[in-house]
Amino acid sequence: MSAANSNSAIAELYSQHHGWLLAWLRKKLGCAHHAADVAQDTFLRVLAARNVLAELREPRAFLTTTAQHLLIDQARRRTLETTYLAELALLSESLAAFPSPEQTLETLQALEQIAGALANASPKAREAFLLHYLEGLGQEEIARRLAVSARMVRKYLVQCLMLCDQQVQDEADS
Amino acid sequence: MSQANKERDPALSAKAAEWLVRLDADDPQERAAAQEEYAAWKQASPENNVAARRLEGLLERMQRLRQAPTARPARTAVEAALREKKRNGTVPLGALLGLLLLLILPLITVWSEWSPGYLLADLKTGPGQWQTDRLEDGSQLALASRSAVNLRYSKQRREVVLVAGRIWVDVAPDPTRPFLVTTPEGSIQALGTRFTVDREAGATVLTMLESRVWVRPASTLTGNGAGLVVSAGQRLRFTGTGPETVQEVDAAGADSAWRNHQLVVQDVPLGQVLATLSHNRRGHLDYAAAELADLRVTAVLPLDDTDKALQLLQLLFPSLEVKHYTSYWVRVRQQEKIRTPLP
To answer: Which chain B residues have a beta carbon less than 8 Å from that of A76?
Structure first.
């Protein structure tokens, strides 16, 4: 599908289904304002996933799935932010130097990337990844804690690195 | 074909990832060997190099995150975010129930001794009973009259579920496990502090005595707003719909009152005081709140000797008649209307 064709496909998708999606979201979220935001973001996402628009057989199902993923991501981002900031606040008494707003923003963005990537990993793989790269634990130690072989730990780490890499590339492309 | 997306090669990504994981091996000899082979692989082709650089960048960012002091908050935040369950976007049942509870508040009391939650609780006290326990991590937990808690200690966390009543907590520091007190209205997370939590009908009241905690009202699960940090000398009441305004309290006074099993009140209606006394004793305390409506109490009353408390109230209000029909049935009435209580 050429660029021109994919743009017109989106335009058609929008004109035919935007109203419906908006109503669906309003009912789901109970707030017209939030619904409008999410509907907008959903179409933006669809725009970003350029290669997907050939012959959408179920456009409404596709839209609601995209919207749902968006809502999950938003909820995750909110939890991430509030948890991080609250934990930081709890520590602030014992901190010599509190991180600057820029540092905090950078940290949050990195964490969001990681959380988004790891959402698709198994719980053990996630645990291995966080223990190794955020806590600095050695691979043998992690193997002991998770009751798996060191080879399995490496597999987990590779899996998660690849998911993170995918995430990085997805964001670079959109 | 779709525009511009560069062809991705997951195989390259995998190879680079494998190298980088090997470079982190525990064994220094293995690390050294991997270094050499990795360097060679990178130079073998430009695509290899690109993939390698990208993943190295990732690792550098992780390294920065690992720098204390942000490492622990970072890990906690990611774990919390990953636990995020799918949400419907509709108002959760919990919040609706909270609202309902507020609406029918006058008709129910949460101090039911016969609820299964209370009867099956890990630690509980009867009417007029006070108890202090030392938990496995060294934390101290005191229960007031008619209170019940469940203990959920695990390797990841230390949780006290407040089923009913009031507790006083002095948390032992444990950097590997957070300490939480939870109620249906939300959770209170501490980091080595002292505080009290009261369960009322449809609400939880937190009084900070030392240091600070992080409160997450259940309402934040709908995505409305962050949790909040409450510090020493503050009191926060929160319900199913969210937190109320934070109030200032005398932390030392509150702590002392708790330890001494006292009720410290200032200008509080007598009916309310009698309700509290009733809660702290066996049997039934009979009184009509409406009749006593204009009598207000400023006093320090013993909660572990409610008979004495009633005597003290009689000193404050000479028109008050306290009749003991049996030790379990006490009636409090006004003999005749007087305009002002004894100062």
So the answer is: 81-82, 84
Confidence of residue B81 (pLDDT cuts 50, 70, 90): confident
Give the residue from B89, B270, B323 showing the smallest Cα distance to A74.
Answer: B89
DSSP string computed for A3-71: HHHHHHHHHHHHHHHHHHHHHHHHHHHS-HHHHHHHHHHHHHHHHHSGGG-TT-S-HHHHHHHHHHHHH
- The yes-or-no verdict on residue B109 having pLDDT over 60 is no
Interhelix angle for A150-173 vs A123-133, to 10°?
90
**Chain A contact for B8 (CB, 8 A cutoff):** yes
Residue type, B100: L
- Give the whole-angstrom CA distance, residue A74 versus residue B30: 42
Task: Find all residues with CB under 8 Å of B191, minimum gap 6, and list them.
Answer: A90, A91, B171, B173, B178, B179, B211, B212, B213
CA closest to A89 among chain B residues: B229
**In degrees rounded to 5, what are phi and psi of residue B189?**
-110, 130
CA–CA gap between residue A118 and residue A127 (Å, rounded)? 10
Contact A79 B61 (CB under 8 A): no
Cα–Cα distance between B340 and B105 in angstroms, integer? 31
| B334: enclosing H helix or E strand | strand B329-334
CA distances from B148 to B132, B181, B196, B266 (A): 12, 12, 14, 28
Our CA dihedral for B240, B241, B245, B249, rounded to 10 degrees, sits at 0
Of B132, B187, B176, B121, the residue nearest B154 (C-alpha): B176
Query: Cα A172 vs. chain centroid, distance in angstroms?
Result: 14
Question: Nearest CA of chain B to the CA of A13: how many Å?
Answer: 17
- Tell me the C-alpha to C-alpha distance, in Å, between residue A87 and each of A27, A62, A95, B112, B322: 34, 37, 12, 36, 52
Q: Tell me how close the Cα of A16 comes to any Cα of chain B, in angstroms.
A: 23
Would you tell me which residues 77-136 of chain B have a C-beta closer than 8 angstroms to some C-beta of chain A? 77-84, 86-91
Give the model's pLDDT for residue B250. 87
CA of B84 vs chain A CAs: smallest distance (Å): 6
Distances (CA, A) of A56 to A48, A53, A78, A159: 16, 6, 32, 31
Chain A hits for B54, CB-CB cut-off 8 Å, are 165, 168-169
Q: Can you give the pLDDT at residue A141?
A: 92
Q: Are the C-beta atoms of B260 and B130 separated by less than 8 Å?
A: no
Q: Which residues from B are below 8 Å from A138, CB to CB? A: 26
What would the pLDDT profile of B273-312 be if each residue is shown by its tens digit? Answer: 998 898 888 777 888 878 888 888 888 898 988 888 998 8
The answer to whether ipTM exceeds 0.85 is no
- Give SS3 for A94: coil
- Residue B28: asked if its preceding bond is cis (omega within 30°), the reply is no
